[in-house]
Amino acid sequence: MEVFPFIIFLLFSLHQQSATAQTCSNVDCGDITVDFPFRLSDQPACCGNPNFNLSCRSQYPAVGKDNTIITFPLTGEFNVYRISYFSTPTSLLISDPTGCTPKRLLEGIQLSVTPFQPIYPETYLFFNCSSNLSRSIDYPAINIDCLGSESFSIMAIPEILYTQSSLLHSCLQIAKISVPISSPYFSEYSLDELLLTWDEPHCLSSCSDICEHHGRTKATIYGLIFGLGIPAFFLWVVFLLYYNSRRNHGNYHQHQQNPSVEISRSAEPPQLGAANGLDRSRIEAYPITLLGESYRLPRPNNNTCSICLSEYKAKETIRTITDCDHYFHSNCIDEWLKVNATCPVCRNLPDDQEAA
């Protein structure tokens, strides 16, 4: 009868584990329910997977509105708008906290070092267009207001919808990026929000050697019932077989296999034509200046290239359009002038072109 104490000990251990597991119930941050594999930074480490850490910040203290933040390595922080745990596939909807998600796309979002991947990856082309021209460009192209100015606009369009005959052909292509869009339908395309999914990680606990995550949802309650009921039934069968046949049974073994995620992001250099631009000799007639360590610009307040939107740095070369004294990265303005004879900022033609 030595088997009875053994069975009682196992059932008591299972009960203790299920009671301890209640210390990691899911919590709310604003409108977001934080559940496994996600965890808030002030929760015990065993309540979630370390690759799914979130933080809860007060966005509007006067009304008690909290904001959920996720931080990606090498990329930075994003607002979390929605986490769908029971959808197929699971999904995470994020956006830039400053309201300019396209800028983060141009800077580069390194998903390869995160457990997340796109659900609907779509390749987008980004263009720098004059403001006058951009007013004539409509759907399916998107005008990115947070990146433009009075003199130029940044436009984006899905590569599969771009044709060489469109007005965008007169603009300068500045990037080609794979974007995790939030909808598979063209009419709902937007670059303001990004939709990602993840492969469910196995529960690797650091608290009392058990998986201490149990939420309040029906799915987790069913999981608890099966987790206790199946082992108890299994032990009862073993007990009957032990006394009926006196034969031993093998151990129950469950194999866990860790998923792997691979994200690829391709970006090819833009292909530009040479229509309606200046010839090489005319472009090279504009003077080039090498920026030294002192980083002295002709106009100290104008420290950003209006074509690529990057700040000037030491040891870079800038080319100045002498007709209007506007300057840009030499490689940027060279490509621009091959297809457009006008200055990207003031849109004026060179003096010799106007005379012609």
Automatic annotation (TrEMBL):
This is RING-type E3 ubiquitin transferase. One of its GO terms (cellular component) is membrane. GO terms for molecular function: polysaccharide binding; ubiquitin protein ligase activity; zinc ion binding. Pathway: Protein modification; protein ubiquitination. The keyword Transmembrane applies. It is found in: Membrane. It catalyses: S-ubiquitinyl-[E2 ubiquitin-conjugating enzyme]-L-cysteine + [acceptor protein]-L-lysine = [E2 ubiquitin-conjugating enzyme]-L-cysteine + N(6)-ubiquitinyl-[acceptor protein]-L-lysine. Residues 305-347 form the RING-type domain. The chain crosses the membrane at residues 221-243. InterPro entries: ATL20-22-like, WAK_GUB, Znf_RING, Znf_RING/FYVE/PHD. Residues 1-21 form the signal peptide. PANTHER family: RING-TYPE E3 UBIQUITIN TRANSFERASE, RING/U-BOX SUPERFAMILY PROTEIN. Pfam families: GUB_WAK_bind, zf-RING_2. Its main location: membrane. Its EC number is 2.3.2.27.
